[in-house]
Amino acid sequence: MTRHEARDEFVRHWLPHVTDAGLLHLITLLEQGSPLLIHGQFTADFPRGCLASQIAWHHPRTANLDTEDAGVVWLTKVAGLNPATSILLTWWDQNGLADRELCHLLLEACYQECGRRQLVKGGSGEITSTPARCSSFRL
């Protein structure tokens, strides 16, 4: 398993199910290296949570869950993944934000997804409030 495989899982299996609000929230957390974004467990003290929990709290099917269940439920019921076999969770749980290469890969994928959604919605949807950095990101 490589970081690139983790990013590919994120792009193929996570991002299609992330709401616009969840995408923008995740971008902010990754950019800031926020202490609200943790690794090694799904949640600590709400609102501190892992990638899946942070996404889940911004999704209509799981937003009402403020416990460890949110990330697990979002992964299994919304994204259709098994948390125990997720390549991304395996990588994230090792070092979280300290793995700068993985964070860069995830941010790049988020920015690209953000730009793609702007194109798909033609400037008329919720994502139009997205900062310009989403469509102009370069590593």
Describe this entry's structure for a reader.
The chain is mainly α and 139 residues long. It has one domain (3-109). It is 55% helix and 0% strand. The protein contains seven helices and no strands. The chain has helices at 3-14, 20-32, 51-56, 69-78, 87-95, 100-121, 133-136. α1 crosses α5 (87-95), α1 (3-14) packs parallel to α6 and α2 packs antiparallel against α6. The two termini are 22 Å apart. Mean pLDDT is 83; it is low at 127-131 and 135-139.
Using brief descriptors, characterize the structure shown.
single chain; 139 residues; mainly alpha; globular
Structural class: mainly alpha
Low-confidence residue ranges = 127-131, 135-139
List SSEs in N-to-C order: HHHHHHH
Question: How large, in whole angstroms, is the Cα Rg?
Answer: 14 Å
Overall strand count: 0
Number of helices: 7
User: What fraction of the residues are assigned to beta strands by DSSP?
Assistant: under 5%
Distance between the termini: 22 Å
Shape: globular
* Structural domain tally: 1
- Helix % is 40-55%
Average per-residue pLDDT, rounded, comes to: 83
Q: Mind describing the biggest β-sheet?
A: none
